[in-house]
Hints:
elongated, two-stranded parallel sheet, mainly alpha
Amino acid sequence: xxxxxxxxxxxxxxxxxxxxxxxxxxxxxxxxxxxxxxxxxxxxxxxxxxxxxxxxxxxxxxxxxxxxxxxxxxxxxxxxxxxxxxxxxxxxxxxxxxxxxxxxxxxxxxxxxxxxxxxxxxxxxxxxxxxxxxxxxxxxxxxxxxxxxxxxxxxxxxxxxxxxxxxxxxxxxxxxxxxxxxxxxxxxxxxxxxxxxxxxxx
Length: 202
């Protein structure tokens, strides 16, 4: 709605700027949260060193590595490692001749949900690239109708990013619970026996 006594075009263009800035900030917030989840969901440590200090060191290295990833790379790891469409992957993987322990936590979805979620996440990368690189090419902010169309696109984008972030927060909460359970498992005799038996074969 145009503010009383103001230039209509200027007002609507400023509203586009406000919505655009909100979209970019939401995307950055999502990317920061995604980096945190991706960094925490998988670590690899030498089989000869599975103390809490070793695990924490591996986590620190993983965070440093993930911080350099682009949104597209993060989404690729999300759909290729964190999300799965079956239950055929172990949370703790180890080869028969054990040299390292790979600890992974993730979400298993039914095939249809996995396909839809993967498509939605890839669309989010497309949306981000569109906003950053092509938004002004597609919308004429020199006209009132162009500004109003741009606002509708941005409001739809905000809704999509907001839903994606809500899903991410739900996954992160579930992973936090799984991480606590995993920490307890790593201290059990069952896990220690697994490490000892396989390490002794190397």
